[in-house]
Amino acid sequence: MNPxxxxxxxxxxxxxxxxxxxxxxxxxxxxPVMRYIVGADxxxxxxxxxxxVDFFVQARYLDGSPVLAIESKGVMVAATTLxxxxxxxxxxxxxxxREGVWAKLGAPARERYAGLCDIWGRFWLHEPxxxxxxxxxxxxxxxxxxxxxxxxxxxxxxxxRRDSRGTSLTTEKAANVxxxxxxxYQVTGYEKFGPDLETWGMFRKRETT
Length: 209
Description:
Layout: E1 9-11, H1 17-27, H2 32-38, H3 45-62, E2 67-72, E3 75-83, H4 92-105, H5 107-123, E4 130-137, H6 146-160, E5 166-171, H7 174-182, E6 186-194, E7 197-205
Parallel strand pairs: 4-5
Antiparallel strand pairs: 1-2, 2-3, 3-4, 5-7, 6-7
Helix pairs in contact: 1-3, 3-4
């Protein structure tokens, strides 16, 4: 994968997974879905959030999907984890990591996550495509176009692959829906999963020339 803008997007090697987790934990610290899964009032919230996010990041390395990032002055400030079209079957190691995470977060957190996965599964496009699992930017660097660069990068690779039908994602913030629609996404599903919590499934079709 090659850079497509003035920001250098690069594929992050597995030995820098901790840097990706650090970006995501900072960017998603108060994100509704993270607070919901972990528990907004959970004891040791930050530690539990780190365990959950690290599990999400490790899962992408273990199924062979790309993890992308941007650096500023040698520091990773933006990152995204993806599920690629036709990912590899995850090894048994992922199950070990998963069980360790839920042992730490507890059964109620696991049940809340499973319920969300059921909802997200109803949005899923059952054709090969890229799925944006997480895209995060340090709060100190938001508003500078990093997320757009990462999305443009993903879209260009999805458009170039004949086995990709497009790019999907979910969001739990209403304000993000309009933003993603600006990038060419359309809403494919919507559900509430709590008194004040809601999620949207969105999809951008592959552009062909």
